[in-house]
Design goal:
Blueprint lengths: L5 E3 L7 E7 L11 E7 L4 E7 L10 E5 L9 H8 L9 H11 L7 H18 L6
Antiparallel strand pairs: 1-2, 2-3, 3-4, 4-5
């Protein structure tokens, strides 16, 4: 489709993969907006993010950001559906996102990911009103 630019931005440690999807004129209020979609290996979820064009101070405003909780968007199509109101999606994007996810399958959590996951689990327990494990 016209107006789409997708470039893989997979991290060197393969913890996540991020594709940039150019926003076509579908969102005329924000023609310079940008969208990102990818796989977050530590959170085991796809994510989708849409940012506005930079304002006069150079700040981008977050319009959409999903896939920030463990397992929130388990399928590539779930993340793509979030982006569809904002941009046209290449037919090959779902397959590329699945390839990116599969490339991360053999990667194990490092010390930082393990610590972050333990912290998130403690926060979840506090939120749910249960006691953290000692």
């Amino acid at each position: 489709m016209r107006g789409i630019r997708s470039e893989s931005r997979a991290g060197s440690d393969r913890n996540d993969a991020r594709d940039h999807v150019g926003i076509p004129a579908r969102d005329r209020r924000n023609p310079q907006a940008s969208a990102f979609v990818g796989w977050d290996r530590p959170l085991q979820t796809y994510f989708a993010q849409v940012l506005s064009a930079p304002d006069e101070d150079g700040e981008e405003i977050e319009l959409v950001w999903v896939g920030t909780a463990f397992g929130e968007l388990p399928r590539a199509v779930d993340a793509i559906r979030v982006l569809e109101p904002y941009c046209q999606i290449e037919a090959s994007l779902a397959a590329q996102l699945e390839i990116d996810r599969m490339a991360c399958l053999a990667t194990r959590d490092g010390p930082n990911q393990l610590e972050a996951k333990a912290f998130m689990a403690r926060l979840s327990q506090i939120k749910d009103g249960s006691e953290p494990e000692a």
